[in-house]
Amino acid sequence: MDTSSLKANLDLPDRLRQAREASGLTQAQVGEQLSLARASVSQIETGERQVNGIELAKLARLYGRPVEEFFALEFDAASALTTLFRAQIGEEAQPALLEAAGRSLELSRELARLERDLGIERASPSRMPIASAPAPASVLQAVQQGEAAAAAERRRLGLGIAPLPDVAELVESQGVRTLLVPLPEGVDGLTLNPPDVGACVIVSSRVALRVRRRFSWAHEYTHVLLDRSQLGMVTWAGNRKDLREVRANAFAASFLMPEQGVAEFMANLGKSRRRNVVDVFDGQTGRRIRNTQPGSDQAVQVFDVVQLALYFDVSREAALFRLANLGYLGETEREETKAKLEESGAELERLMGTEERFDAGRDGHQAFRHRLLGLLVEAVRREVATRGWARETAELAGVDAEDLERALEHAGIRRVIRRPRAGKELA
Questions:
Q1: Exposed site from 226, 290, 327, 392, fewest CB < 10 Å?
Q2: d(Cα 112, Cα 98) in Å, to the nearest integer?
C-alpha cells in the first residue's frame, strides 16, 4: 500500500465524521438508518471501532457519494448532493431523502459502469436541442417558457398532438434513467444530474396512481431539459411556488395535453372556449394568473372532463385544470365542476371500465426494469459481472433476485450447483 492510500485509510474515520456533519445529520439519525446505536457511530468516527464493508456502503449511500471518495487523495466533505438538499428541502426530510437519492445514485453509477463494460453507448440528454433556460422572472414567464418548451419537445420527438405513450419509457429513450423509489412524505420526485453518470429522474412510489405518475415523470423531465445546469431539483410540497417548479408544471400539462389536441377533442364534443385564462396545475391544485371576459356559451360538463382525462391518460384533476387554463371554464365553473368530479368522477370512469388506469401495480414503469434485467443477463452471459453482483444490483433496484434468476435460466444460463467432493457428505 502506497503512502497516499495508507493516509486515506487512516483518515477514514474522520472523513466519515466530516461527511455526516456536512449532510446535517446527527449520529443518532445515522444510527437509525444503519440500525446501529449512536455510540457505535461515534466509535466508528473516532476509530475505536472498525467500519465493515456493508456499513461503509450504507454510509456512502446515506451521504450521497461513492465509496471511492472516502479513499481518494483529496476529500471534500461537503458533497454537492448534500448541499443541494440542504438548500431545497426541510431538515426533517433530509435523512430519508439523502438515503433514497444515495441509493439511486449508487444504482445509476453501477449501471453506467456496466454499460461501459458492455460497450453500450447510451443516448445523452446533452444532445437535446433544448438548452438550459434562464430562470423565469415571473409566474407568467414561467408558464410561457414551460408551454413553449413542451411544444418544441413534441415537435422534436415527432409526437404531433396525439396522447403520449408510456411517459417513463419515453424519458428512458432519451438517455435519462427513470427510477421509482419510496421518497419522504410530501416529496413527489427529484431530478439528479451528476456529471459522472448523467441525468436520473426519480418519482416517488408513494404517488400511488399511475396517471399521477405520468404527470410526475413529465414534470421531472422538464428539469432535465431546462435546468441542465443544476446538479438536481427536488419537487416537494414546500417549493410549489418556486418559478422553476411552476415552469415544470406548465410543461407537464402541455406535454401531456397539447393545446391543439385538446381543442380538436373538445370541438368533437361540440365545446368551444368560454374564457381566456392562465392557471397553473401542480399535480394537486391550480393557481389563477390571468382572466378576461367570457366568450361563447358552450358549458363543459363533468362527463366531458372525464372523457378528456381518459383520452390523454391523465388524472381528472389535471384535465380539469388544463381546460380551465385553455379557457373552456371560468373560475366559478371550474370550482363547481371540481366538486362534481369529486362526487361522481370515479363512478363515471368505473362505468366506462377504466379502473386499470389507476392501478398502482400497472403504472407503466417497465422500461427501467426491462433494461436492467437485460443488462444484467448480458453481463453474466459475457462474464463481465458475477451472478452474485447481478443479484445485489437487482435487489438495490427493487427487483426480486428470483426474477433475475428466472431471466438467466431463460437465457440458458443455469445456476451452478456445487457438488461435494468425494468422501464428503452434503450438510
A1: 290
A2: 20
Same-domain status, 16 and 89? yes
CB-count exposure of residue 147 (10 Å: 0-12, 13-18, 19+): buried
* In-domain check, residue 403: yes
Tell me what pLDDT residue 19 has.
85
**Better-predicted residue by pLDDT, 400 or 246:** 246
Q: Calculate ∠ Cα 88-94-99, nearest 5°.
A: 120
CA 230 – CA 192 distance, rounded (Å): 8
Would 346 be classed as within a structural domain? no
Query: What residues contact residue 275 under an 8 Å CB cut-off, 6+ apart?
Result: 291, 292, 293, 294, 295, 327, 328, 329, 330
pLDDT digits (tens, 9 = 90+) for 256-275: 999 999 999 999 988 888 65
Clarify whether residues 130 and 219 are in a common domain: yes
Residues 109 and 230 reside in one and the same domain: no
Residue 418 in domain: no
Where residue 145 falls among pLDDT bands split at 50, 70, 90? Answer: very high
Q: 187 pLDDT exceeds 80? A: yes
Which one-letter amino acid corresponds to residue 237? A
Domain that holds residue 392: 367-410
Domain termination residue (choose one: 255, 287, 321): 255
Q: Which of 255, 286, 320 is the last residue of a domain?
A: 255
Q: How many domains does the chain have?
A: 3
Residue at 288: amino acid letter: R
All cell numbers assigned to 124: 445523452
- Complete DSSP assignment for 367-425: HHHHHHHHHHHHHHHTTSS-HHHHHHHHHHTT--HHHHHHHHHHTT-PPP-PPPPTT--
Q: What number of CA atoms fall less than 13 Å from residue 189's CA on the CB side?
A: 29
Using an 8 Å Cβ cutoff, are 132 and 222 in contact? no
Q: How many C-beta neighbours within 10 Å does residue 370 have?
A: 11
Contact predicate 114/379, CB 8 Å: yes
Nearest Cα neighbor of 309 from 377, 358, 267 is 358
What DSSP line would sit under 223-243, residue for residue? HHHH-TTSSEEEEEGGGTTSH
The pLDDT of residue 294 is above 50: no
The dihedrals phi and psi of 221, each to the nearest 5 degrees, come to: -60, -30
177 neighbors 108 (Cβ within 8 angstroms): yes
Residue by residue, DSSP assigns 22-84 as: HTT--HHHHHHHHT--HHHHHHHHHTSSPPPHHHHHHHHHHTTS-GGGGGSSS--SS-HHHHH
